[in-house]
Specification:
There is one protein chain. The chain is α/β, with parallel strands linked by helices and 279 residues long. The protein has one domain: Rossmann fold (3-Layer(aba) Sandwich), CATH 3.40.50.150.
Length: 279
């Protein structure tokens, strides 16, 4: 069971609530469009098995793909991806008999770029809501950029600041491991994170003679700028920091879209969860 069902913390349960709320609003709006209307899809790049175990209660909770399948009005189709064969088997069992559900086993980066995103074309009146919720720095910038440049795909995106702080950034920027830096390069898209991750403010007072590491918020804001300026998303609200039981930020939940109404809906949802923490 442990290899099939992930145990998730309270912050992950909040994220599931947030995505479910927006997915319902999104599907309601697109399903109501008059002919020719839109063919709207749900895409989950790290779908898992469809269920998780709550760390708080020990009970099963529905994961993002099964939450999406329960949204009414329904999406026209669903694309669910995971690298783990055990989770894929559980997901296929949970979605058996659903011709509108497409399940893929493999690297989501390649599958999204080669197969899924190419089917969400603007001229075909296709639109999609995509959840990119990696466990760490397991996502390539090309995926984010393709979604932004498409004009058809909205994203919820996990910015894994805990992985970045634990494995990439060091107090001394010259001590950053090249292999770990390459992971962040792949996610960020280039090395411009280095200029954001370290600041010269107070440099003269640094006894060690190197730049100071910047804040989590500054790093997240730098990535937000990339989503707008480099990926081409027109509307990216400030992300929601997701914290663990010790109030440490585990990741930032970003939303990126092309329409102001989408961003306004998510801002309202984020506002409800801004002060929520471990219960």
């Amino acid at each position: 069971m442990s290899t099939t069902f992930d145990t998730i913390g309270y912050w992950s349960e909040l994220k599931l609530d947030i995505v479910r709320q927006y997915a319902t609003a999104y599907s309601t709006i697109l399903a109501a469009q008059k002919p020719p209307g839109f063919h709207h899809a749900y895409i989950d790049a790290f779908a898992g098995s469809g269920r998780h175990i709550s760390k708080r209660t020990g009970e099963f909770v529905l994961g993002s793909p099964l939450n999406a399948l329960a949204v009414h009005p329904p999406f026209k189709e669903y694309h669910l991806i995971d690298l783990d064969s055990n989770k894929i088997a559980a997901l296929r069992e949970a979605t058996k008999g659903r011709p509108d559900v497409h399940v893929y086993e493999g690297d989501c980066n390649q599958i999204l770029l080669d197969t899924v995103f190419s089917a969400v074309r603007y001229e075909d009146y296709r639109r999609a809501l995509c959840l990119l919720d990696p466990y760490g720095l397991h996502l390539r910038w090309e995926v984010i950029k393709r979604a932004g440049r498409s004009g058809t795909i909205e994203l919820f995106l996990n910015f894994p600041v805990a992985d970045i702080n634990r494995n990439v950034l060091r107090r001394n920027p010259e001590a950053v491991d090249p292999e770990q830096a390459s992971r962040l390069n792949a996610y960020w898209g280039d090395e411009s994170w280095r200029q954001i991750a370290y600041t010269k403010e107070g440099h003269q007072g640094n006894l060690f003679g190197f730049d100071e590491k910047t804040s989590n918020n500054a790093l997240a804001e730098g990535f937000r700028s990339r989503l707008i300026q480099s990926a081409g998303f027109q509307h990216v609200p400030p992300p929601l920091p997701m914290r663990n039981t010790k109030a440490v930020i585990v990741y930032y939940l970003f939303f990126a879209a092309h329409k102001p109404v989408a961003a306004d809906i998510v801002k309202d949802i984020f506002k409800k969860y801004q002060s929520r923490g471990e219960r």
